Amino acid sequence: MRKPILSSIRPHASKVLAVLLTVASISAGAQGAPDRAFVGANVKRYADAVLAIMSYTAVPDVTTSSLSINNGTTGNPGFGQTQLGGGFTLSRTFPLYLEGTVAYSRYDPTFIATDGNEVRPVPTRWNTVSTTVGVGWDFPITDELRLRPIINGMVGRVATDLRVAQSVFNHVADANLQFLEDGALNAYGVGGSLMLDLEHYREHYEIDVELRATDIYIRSFGGTSEAVQGSATAQQLSLWARWRAPTGLSALDRPVRYVLETAYSHYFGGSAGVLGFNDLASVGVGLELDSSRYPVIVTRTRAMVRYVFGNNVHGVSFGFAMSF
Questions:
Q1: For residue 35, what are the domain limits?
Q2: What is the reported pLDDT for 256?
Q3: pLDDT at 189
Q4: Are strands 231-251 and 145-162 parallel, antiparallel or unpaired?
Q5: Rounded to whole angstroms, how far apart are CA atoms 79 and 238?
Q6: Residue range 262-285: mean pLDDT, rounded
Q7: How far is 226 from 35, CA to CA, in rounded Å?
Q8: CATH number at residue 192
Q9: Cα separation, 196 vs 2, whole angstroms
């Protein structure tokens, strides 16, 4: 069992892997990061924020699997994030749990360059790519409830892309500006998670519930530009639940199921408040097709629509998942 971004063992299958593709539109309130800063020490502050934002991609989470934040009324910098991931337990006799995610995010702050006389906005684009892996083991508490400790590791890279006229910088040159001009920030993270996994499956319905606590420490390394070295923590507590039941319709010689889903995440450490919120919640509804009767690698296909909301944040996402 897993939420759309991750799936583990079911009683009737030795291996289940879910893959999620999500597109979301989220609007945020005025608590987001400011969008103007003078080139100089403030670049380090923004880079720290990007490293903290990377912490959102370090943890598999349905509420942040896809975010797109852009508030034109307040001028907050654009931010977008997409996460693709999966996970599975090998078998009940050998309950090794493996998970992995790949994430991409884009952050578009605008700085101010000045030589003391002339002031000009400097638009930038910071692209982040990261991947997280996890290795765990299932300890059965009951036939339906398992305790799952997980060791997590991640690696990521932030690359800046600056496309403005060179004349803007004729009288402004320092290490921070050099980072803006095609600089890079490399980061790694180590930590772990502890999960309670409930799988209550009956003939006419299925219930999955997960409670997960995660703590991953992230810091820069290697070829990171000297001006923007730093660290952050990804600390998160999340609760996720899903109900599945037949609709009464059939397709592919199997029942078509409707899916109801809810999730809640609370962020601590470096993740807290970076995007203007400490909590995110979502509710979702969808349909699931079962193709397990046929000799194909995909056993289930699920489409979901979710409403995501939090403090000054709300939006709608569309998800697509497959189980193997």
A1: 18-318
A2: 96
A3: 92
A4: unpaired
A5: 22
A6: 84
A7: 23
A8: 2.40.128
A9: 11
Average pLDDT over residues 145-167: 78
pLDDT band, very low/low/confident/very high, at 51 (cuts 50, 70, 90): confident
Cβ–Cβ under 8 Å, residues 231 and 185:
no
How do residues 238-259 score in pLDDT, each as one tens digit?
Answer: 999 999 999 999 999 999 999 9
Q: What is the pLDDT of residues 3-24, one digit of tens each?
A: 333 322 233 333 334 344 444 4
Which residue is listed with tokens 């979702």?
284
Question: In angstroms, rounded to a whole number, what is the distance separating the alpha carbons of residues 64 and 117?
Answer: 42
Average pLDDT over residues 51-75: 62
pTM exceeds cut of 0.85: no
**Looking at 75-84, 90-99, 247-256, 314-323, which range is the least confident one?**
75-84
Tokens of 69: 């934040």
Comparing 29-43, 139-153, 229-243, the range with the smallest average pLDDT is 29-43
Name the residue with tokens 């083991």. Answer: 137
On whether the CB atoms of residues 218 and 233 are closer than 8 A, the answer is yes
In a domain, 304, yes or no: yes
The answer to whether 152 and 193 are in contact (CB under 8 A) is: yes
Return the closest-CA partner of residue 209 out of 222, 200, 220: 200
CA 45 vs CA 34, 103, 111, 298, 304: distances in Å: 11, 23, 12, 45, 37
Confirm whether 9 is domain-assigned. Answer: no
Return d(Cα 105, Cα 127) in angstroms, integer.
Answer: 6
pLDDT at 108 exceeding the cut of 60: yes
Residue 289 falls inside a structural domain: yes
Cα–chain-centroid distance for residue 185?
19
- Residue 8 falls within a domain, yes or no? no
Domain tally, the chain:
1
Find the length of the chain: 324
Q: How far apart are CA 317 and CA 315, in angstroms?
A: 7
